[in-house]
Each structure stands twice: as C-alpha cells, then as structure tokens.
Amino acid sequence: MSEVLLSAKGLTKRFGGLAAVNDVSLDLWRSRIHAVIGPNGAGKSTLTNLLSGDLPPTSGSVHLGGQDVTGWSAEKISAQGLGRSYQKTNIFLPFTVWENVRLASQSRQPHAFRWLQRAADFAAVNARAESAIELSGLKYRIHSIAGTISHGEQRQLEIAMTLATQPQVLLLDEPLAGMGAQEAERMISLLHRLKKDHAMLLVEHDMDAVFSLADQLTVMVNGLVIASGTPAQIRLDPGVQAAYLGEDIGEESA
Question: Is the Cβ–Cβ distance between 202 and 172 less than 8 Å?
C-alpha cells in the first residue's frame, strides 16, 4: 500500500548569500520513484544531502517515517530507515563483494562490536547480506574483489550495501553515471525491482532512464523548483523546455 515515507517541507540551504536549495518541498511514497532533474548547479545533490543528513538545512523540515529528523546526523537518519548512494562510488575496493555487504549489514546489529564472537557467526547479518547481494544481481560475483569488478557492478555493489541496512527510503544520486548501455540496462532493471518495497528519490542526467523509471518528477533550476508532476506533464511544460534550451527532454541523454 502506498504511503508517504519521507516528507520535506520548505527546505532551504544557504551558503553565504547563495541559496543552493530554496524552499523545496516534496513527498516520497512507497512503491514510487520520484526523480529530481535539472541543469548542472540546479541544487539536486544539495537537496539529496539535506534529506540524508549530510548537510543541515538553513530552514525547513524533513520527516522520515513520521519522525521529525531535521538536523539529525547522517548516521542517525540512516538508522531510522534511509539509505543512499553517492555520485562517487563508496565501497571498500580491497574487500570481496561479500565482505563489503556483510560489513554494511553488520552495522545494523544492536551490539555490532562483540570482540570475542566471529562476525561470520551472526546469522541475521549473513542472511541480510545474502538477500541484498541476490536482489542486486551480484550473486555470481559474491567472492570477487570489489576493485576488480566493472564500474556498473561496483554501482550495484554500493546499492547492495545500502539494501543490507534494510532501508525504507532510497536516495540514489546518479546511479547510471559512467555506464555503458548494457550496464545501464541492468541498473534500470534493478531499480524497477527495488521500487515495490521502497520509496525512492532518483537524481539522474540520463533522461531516457528518468522517463522510463519515474512516477513523479521535480525540476530544479538555480535552487528553485520550477515544475513538478508526472512525466507526461513535465515533458510538455514550457518552463521545463526553456530550462533545457528548447530541447526535447525526453530525448536528452547527458
């Protein structure tokens, strides 16, 4: 059943006299993908950082699962049920796929540092890791060193690590960046699989992928929301067309 899992109201972030994000509101619903698009410098990544707790807002509020998490640390918000990926892949390159995901899963143990007990003995930790690896499509790479797998597989691994923390809300910052066509297809398929059980925010420059994935879009320019609606509504919006220099945004790929 659809429900609002994350709600942001009037979010603003100022750096001196610059408003990188200016009075932005949005709701993320379970089983829906909400894409945020806009030109470079529009404030998309700053907005993601405000929602995840990586940056504190100048004003406005964020509620996660009905709890006011405004000003909470990223670690505390993550424990409340939010997971995110970053523009730059954030994994442990010398470790195997299994070790990366198991470490992420272990972070959710109430007593994560029992020094006299082997990490492999945590049955629940291992079960979460196995489930996340299978869901992300990396079971065939489970024993591979993370630094040796492809860029697209590393992005899948980062999402698997996020899934191992059992989030309800996923914030994905350019998950298709730098991918070839086949890798992008695998990532799009993965995001479709994740949609059922999560509320998702997607920041992405690949407009073909955005319009194939998103249920709702928010368009930002210079920190402001200039349009919000369904893909069909956004495609026909004259203000959005102007922001993209008159191009058909449904065909843009960069």
Answer: yes
Strand partners, 62: 8
Residues 59-69 have pLDDT tens digits of: 999 999 999 99
Tens digits of residue pLDDT in 84-123: 998 888 899 999 999 999 999 988 876 545 555 665 557 8
Domains and CATH numbers, the chain: 1-81+169-254 (3.40.50.300), 91-166 (no CATH)
The reported pTM is: 0.90
